[in-house]
Amino acid sequence: MTDSPAHPGVDLRALSDRRTARLTGWMADAGLDHLVLTGPDHIRYATGHRAQLVSEGVDWYAAIVGADGEAEVFVPFTDTDVPEPGPALPRLRRLRPAPSWAPAACQPGQWARSLATALSTRHARRVGYDALDAGILHDVAADLPGTRFRPCAADLFALRAVKDPLEIALVEAACRINAAALDLAVDSADIGTRDHDLLAVAAAHQHRLGAEFLTHSVCNVRKGSGGWFADGAPLKEGEPFFLDIGCHGPGGYASDAARTGFVGEPPAGIARAWQQLLTAYQEGQDAARPGVRCSVIHETINACLARHKLPVTPYGTGHGVGLRCCELPSINAAGRMDSDAVLRPGHVIALEPETAVDHHGTLFVLKIEDNFAVTETGLRRLTHHTRA
Amino acid sequence: MTDSPAHPGVDLRALSDRRTARLTGWMADAGLDHLVLTGPDHIRYATGHRAQLVSEGVDWYAAIVGADGEAEVFVPFTDTDVPEPGPALPRLRRLRPAPSWAPAACQPGQWARSLATALSTRHARRVGYDALDAGILHDVAADLPGTRFRPCAADLFALRAVKDPLEIALVEAACRINAAALDLAVDSADIGTRDHDLLAVAAAHQHRLGAEFLTHSVCNVRKGSGGWFADGAPLKEGEPFFLDIGCHGPGGYASDAARTGFVGEPPAGIARAWQQLLTAYQEGQDAARPGVRCSVIHETINACLARHKLPVTPYGTGHGVGLRCCELPSINAAGRMDSDAVLRPGHVIALEPETAVDHHGTLFVLKIEDNFAVTETGLRRLTHHTRA
Q1: Is the dihedral of CA A175, A178, A180, A186 positive or negative?
Q2: Residue B161: which of B41, B9, B259 has the closest Cα?
Q3: Alpha-helical segments (H) within B88-243
Q4: Domain-by-domain residue ranges, chain A?
Q5: Do B338 and A110 touch (CB under 8 A)?
Q6: How far B355 CA lies from chain A's nearest CA (Å)?
Q7: Is the confidence at residue B284, as pLDDT, over 50?
Q8: A162-381: CATH, from 3.90.230.10, 3.40.50.300, 1.10.357.160, 3.50.50.60
């Protein structure tokens, strides 16, 4: 996998070693001897195993990770134990059968028995979990009265928020796929092109360029804010539209980006609002430096929009990007976040301001989104586009 | 939305009434005065609101549903309360702001406060939840000592397993999209075509034909069992490959289907194994009648494969299909399921047998999958293909 054109030069074995060192170091600090992980991103981080098979399969797999970083993973696709399943994944020691093709909560007895048995065999005493179903957790804990369980999803996302340079290289590889697909889709727009057609071009190119998984396919044509979904609407002369798409690239790291396109020349009012959105976007990027609180970036963008008498972005203007498309740090109003994180070098973020403009009674939403690595001096863009 | 070519004649208002009658009837029987729902499929079922924005956004939204079926939904895309947000969704009375673009467990304080306040205002006493994060649940429950919470995901999936005829019509509409995309992708295969190219054709057509959301894009070219993922492998003369793709159609109902294709004429041993898989598949379909236990279907398929000295399907050979791609009933070995359900009219299922055959030292996996409605007399196929 190391010589794929999509992630040239990334030594996945070295990345695995670094991730494991960070994870097991954190486990030691937190006093945890085991983790039970069900999130495909956490499983990938800890074991390298790819558990993102279908969008809804968020709890079809479970990894049990020991204090030494060695792991076993319950998977839906085998009926026997598989020892040493991946020579490229040295810490993944065993695959074990799990129920197939249903949310874990549909088979709580199966899951509770399997997890309790595995944890008991390992003499687990202090176990962190990311997203284990509450009912299953209750049953596992009842089976293991001497074992303590505690939620650790927020800690794991915080741990993963600051990326290793190899991780940033993989996000950048995903960004190359995603940005190219986005540009091709925007360039394909013409009068009469439907939102579905734009998404078709984008998805096809994400696959052709080697994406692992397509995360979302949003297209807004004459919908208001919150109008994320294509419904067959055809493009009209002079109108703006936006696309917001994402994918995981090889290695499982994601990209999340958006572009506003125009069919022909937009009316002056729309063109002016678009330039003002770009100004707000640039001010947000300029504000995004190490040491700045995330809410400051958010307020900078929205203050600029308000100054131009445009609607502010009615949601968080940014988020982390990594093995999940949307992870920590959140970039939002301070009142909408548990913690207003300080931006640090190694954070990888998406910024995604939105505004809207009325034209002859129709509200057009304008949006842009790129991904950036935070460096010692500011932002380095990871999504390179051929258009503004 | 009712006159979309993808779901002709489906009266979504009538469907909403029927779903609400079923849901509130079940709540009354279960003694629940409220539900807290985070699964996009459960939210759609209860409110009509579309909460599937991105693959990982499984807990970005939360619906609170009262005993009368009226609901409010916390959403990531607004900074103010939105009363009566959808004239087409009469039971959805209000949208409320939630944290944006991160797993709920990253903002447990925000979520716990919002949910506890809403439940307290409604004087909720007995609350069912589908998949609320265990840590957030703990904090909400601590805030509301007089309120009892209980997990109800398995009950909700069981409730939804038997479909209304309008739901079956929507699954069939999704199947039209998915089967057509699959056929076009298989037909595009030629020597040198890469797995990524096949998936590109499939995804583009799913979008062009009006899919709401793409759930998975699996392609196996010369991988063993469990080799779900494209990696750029080119097709070779005489070789089989398989595609397994899914999508949600308009209305949010899913289709999940798979096809094995051949580049040119397969060698005799592979062709024979393929015919034997089709025989096993047909025997499974013939066994799938109301009153039969799901494990019997599974064992029928695998017994036929074993009789032909082929590897059995190493996972569940089927599952329900509805607002999730994979839901109840599970069709698997009795020992891999909490409950070995009896097949009933109105169930909608996928059957997906797999086998494998060695050819000159390479293991080729053969797979097929269609969706079926269970009628009084047996199965009615919902995925219509132009090829066998």
Answers
A1: negative
A2: B41
A3: 108-121, 134-143, 153-161, 165-187, 195-208
A4: 12-160, 162-381
A5: yes
A6: 12
A7: yes
A8: 3.90.230.10
Q: Select the residue of A57, A109, A131 nearest B133 (Cβ to Cβ).
A: A131
Residues A253-292: pLDDT tens digits? 999 999 999 999 999 999 999 999 999 999 999 999 999 9
In sequence order, which residues have a C-beta less than 8 Å from that of residue A164 and are 6 or more positions away? Answer: A15, A18, A19, A22, A346
B111: helix, strand or coil: helix
The C-alpha atoms of residue B338 and residue A185 are separated, in whole angstroms, by 46
Alpha carbons A143 and A37: distance in angstroms, whole number = 19
What is the per-residue pLDDT across B216-259, written as a single tens digit (0 to 9) for each? 999 999 998 888 999 999 999 999 999 999 999 999 999 999 99
B52, B200, B337 member nearest A204 (Cβ) = B200
Query: Cα torsion at A112, A115, A117, A123 (round to 10°)?
Result: -130
Task: Tell me whether 0.85 is exceeded by the ipTM.
Answer: yes
The two structure tokens encoding residue A226: 């919150």
Question: Are the beta carbons of A315 and B110 separated by less than 8 Å?
Answer: no
- For B358, the enclosing helix (H) or strand (E) is strand B354-359
Longest distance between any two alpha carbons in chain B, whole Å:
69
* B386 CA: distance to closest CA in chain A (Å): 22
pLDDT at A8: 61
Task: Write out chain B residues lying below 8 Å of A77, CB-based.
Answer: 225-226, 228, 314-315
Strand partners, A359: A362
Backbone angles phi, psi at B383, to 5 degrees: -100, 110
Say yes or no for a CB contact (<8 Å) between B99 and A336.
yes
- The token pair that represents A140 in the structure block: 């596992």
Specify whether the CB–CB gap between A238 and A262 falls below 8 A: yes
Q: Name the residue facing B196 among A50, A78, A207 (closest C-beta).
A: A207
Q: DSSP for B213-244?
A: EEEEEEEESS--TT-----SPBP-TT-EEEEE
Please, which residues have CB within 8 angstroms of residue A17's CB and are 6 or more apart in sequence?
none
Mean pLDDT of all residues belonging to chain A: 95
B204 phi/psi in degrees, rounded to 5: -60, -40
CB pair distance less than 8 Å for A200 and B204: yes
Q: What is the reported pLDDT for A388?
A: 47
Q: How many residues does chain B have?
A: 388
CB-nearest to B53 from A100, A199, A216 is A216
CATH assignment of A12-160? Answer: 3.40.350.10
Distance from CA of B249 to the nearest CA of A (A): 11
Q: What number of other Cβ atoms are within 10 A of residue B269's Cβ?
A: 13
Strand partners, B319: B350
Query: How far is the C-alpha of A118 from the C-alpha of A81, rounded, in Å?
Result: 13
Closest CA to A98 of A146, A46, A43: A43
Q: What are phi and psi for residue B268, nearest 5 degrees? A: -55, -40
The string of DSSP codes covering A16-27 is: HHHHHHHHHHHH
